[in-house]
Design goal:
8-stranded mixed sheet, DNA 3'-5' helicase, DNA_helicase_UvrD/REP, DNA_helicase_UvrD-like_C, isomerase, globular, 23 strands, 35 helices, binds magnesium ion, 781 residues, binds adenosine-5'-triphosphate, alpha/beta, 6-stranded parallel sheet, nucleotide-binding
Amino acid sequence: MENFLQELNKSQQDAVLYNEGPSLVIAGAGSGKTRVLTYKIATLLESGYAPYNILALTFTNKAAREMKERIAGLVGLPLASRLWMGTFHSVFSRILRANADRIGFTSDFTIYDSSDSRSLIKSIVKDKGLDDKLYKPSSVQAIISNAKNALITPAAYLLNKELMESDMYSKRPLIQEIYQTYWNRCLRAGAMDFDDLLLYTNILFRDHADVLERYRSIFRFVLVDEYQDTNFAQHLIVRQLAREHGRICVVGDDAQSIYSFRGANISNILNLKDEYPGCRTFKLEQNYRSTRNIVSAANSLIEKNKEQIRKNVYSENAEGSKIEVLNAYSDYEEGYFVANRILEMHSSDGYVFNDFAILYRTNAQSRIFEEALRKRSIPYRIYGGLSFYQRKEIKDVISYFRLAVNPHDEEALKRIINYPARGIGDTTLGKIIECGVKHDVSLWQVIVSPLEYALPVNSGTLGKLQKFRELIEDFIEENRSLDAMEIAEIIIRRSGIFKEIFSDRSVENISRQENIQELMNGIQEYCSNRREEGNEHISLVDFLAEISLATDQDTEEDGTSDKVTMMTVHASKGLEFKNVFVVGLEEDLFPSSLSKSSESEIEEERRLLYVAITRAEENCVLSYAATRYRNGQPTAMPPSRFLKDIDPCYLKLPSALSSGNKIPGLDREPHFGKYTSHASIYRNKTTGSRSSFPMWDAEMSASTSSLKKVSSLVSSSTESEERTLTSIGNISVNARIRHDRFGEGTVVEISGEGDNCKVGVEFDQVGKKQLLLKFAKFTVI
Ligand code: ATP
Ligand code: MG
């Protein structure tokens, strides 16, 4: 043990070795909080704790995996693999499966992802004949989610005076009724959404003292990372498990609390001492991650927040270079600058692409950077957005898997009852749903007993339903004995999906085939990993549980190859990269226009920037653009107020446009007319030579010098390529659209220019289509 403790400083060792009572490690970014948790677990294992007596909760699955690997390196894999370690959602879904009968579920319950729950809400709003503008499914979903995170069930909602008298309620008087229906339909479908996993765990522990007691004695030590971002439901689960025995250690940083929109409550960590008597607090002050300059810049920023625990964070690393500030005329130019800067650092400073991350405030910003990187052949990976498991063909296959495990799963059934086509149309489905609602049974029950529930369909349709039922029953039966890989193969073949997708090699089908192949690879990998951990039978339900809990950070397709990482700042929490570009530092973007109405919202946005900057180990670049396309219009964007919060002595500002240490544009409103015409030049495809581009004309010295250097690297980049970027207005990759004929879908690619501009759309019902923008009839939703 002495050996590995030497890899910690004195304060970290103290925190690791104190196990006599509750403890809290509160410390700034990069100071080794996660490292303390990791080493504490290793120490507990060495001192005789059995791995299954330790519960460690992380914010992402990826963090759990990394921690497990590290612990395996310290004490060996056999011990590490038997720890209870994972996100709140993954750990407690396991516990719920084991105790499902106590709360009215079976252990095969389905987990609805966010799009499943939105689709269910949509259908409820429609069934009730309500206006879907007033009861917008995404807003209703957020309201329900907030209620669940505050542990308010539909019944409790009715009794909650504050909620019932709120503005939100008077505007949408049927919200409670929708919530109640949603609740009932999930229950009937044997499904839980993400928030239910936390809510039902609380209900399980509250109502079943014997179950709580059992887990209290199993989890003899509880550890939680990123505690500042726990919500009430999570906080209460931890409290129920650990308060009595007090063997708990949580780590966090109030300055990095960035999830209040999901109900996270910073006071959970601030008040911890009151809840756990005798709780000892440890502070870590040395940052091991970043250069001195980055640490000082981040400190100078976060000091501007009034609400915070003051900390002295310092670094003994090299001083490093100043944080570079890049200012661009437009969002497209920003993409260009960043891509070029990456190429430059890659070729002259010996970095690999894995060393770079581009962090943005919203997913929609990724498109421009994707274009810019693609043009320069820079490989990248994007986290978040449309994940692999959301692709149409994958969701279809997964829906069959879900039915094989739980045939009552309404969303899965609706999705594939007529895919591949078997003559069961929308009208029949509508009747099945109506019948289910009327008799308060699942759609599957209606299909199994159509006569009992008086399903009004003709004998031809009854025959088709009967065949569908036999198909699914066949899968259910096979699934009882086969393991995940075997049953997956059977399902893909017998369902008809194989024939549908593998029968021809059209371009469209090839990518679907590859995706399905990739899914099979994923199952195989999952099975062999689980076998390595000593499990013999790996069931489909285990695999489904694993994939349904993927988070923003888990959508990586292959972690081994050399690629630039792109993700939102929220998803970057806990991670580190040698070089970080934080982009879009403009008012109404960062801080977001939705988070400017109060000082506390601004403070949260400031913390978000603190998180972004502190991801950087060696270099950090901040960029902003003077204009940006928003809602199809070029819009003037003043630089973010946060740029002014950072002490200028840590910044390298664009020199020609700055006088002294001023942020260009910060003290003046950009001249809007100028930018409009500038943007229109991009749009006009007949505009002549390169020099007509303002960004070339501007001769912005700092940027220009790098521009000149890299223009030789990228001499093939043409202005016509630049123009195509803007010719599509507000449509971006990942945008959701509604098409007159094909229904709803997600934009997956944009190509061509001017009249030839094409948008590739993955439609929910009909698969991928290329649409010529000029003729396409759709609206962005
Ligand atoms: P964040 O607040 O961003 O989650 P953190 O406080 O959890 O950060 P860690 O990720 O644990 O910090 O540590 C930051 C980096 O510093 C990691 O690369 C870690 O391995 C390294 N580190 C931490 N402590 C030490 C130490 N005593 N010696 C060497 N490296 C260390
Ligand atoms: Mg950490």
